[in-house]
Amino acid sequence: MAKIQIITIIANVLFLYYISRLIIKGKLREEYAIVWVICTLFLMVFAFWRNGLEVMARLTGVYEAPNLVFTGFIFAILIYLLHLSVVASKLYNDNKKLAQEVSLLKEEFKKHLDNK
Predict the structure, then answer these.
(1) Buried-exposed string 89-107: b where 16+ CB fall within 10 A, e elsewhere
(2) What is the pTM of this model?
(3) Cβ–Cβ under 8 Å, residues 50 and 2
(4) Contact 19, 33 (CB under 8 A)
(5) Distance of CA 102 to the CA centre of its chain
(6) What is the pLDDT of residue 4?
(7) Burial state string for 43-73 with b = 16 or more CB within 10 A and e = fewer than 16
(8) Cα–Cα dist 22/1, whole Å
């Protein structure tokens, strides 16, 4: 096994440990951790299977194997950014609705105090 493979495997194991610690401490939600775990496991597969990237490049018709890595990760990043945009939009709408409800409750409370 090559030195770079050992370094990559150790780095992946440490990263998986770090992700699990963040989940346990409540700093990372499970739904987001899944993306990181999948990416790390994907890298782990290619750390053990050295020719795997070349095989995958030939299967997909990509001429240079590193281009497959860049294309795959760019695509994954775009999907993840879309997901985060959807989550941010939902949080914005929830926050707006909550602010409106608080405003209505304040008005109701003022009316209730004025009647006394």
Answers:
(1) eeeeeeeeeeeeeeeeeee
(2) 0.68
(3) yes
(4) yes
(5) 32
(6) 86
(7) ebebbeeeeebeebbeeeebeebeebbeeee
(8) 31
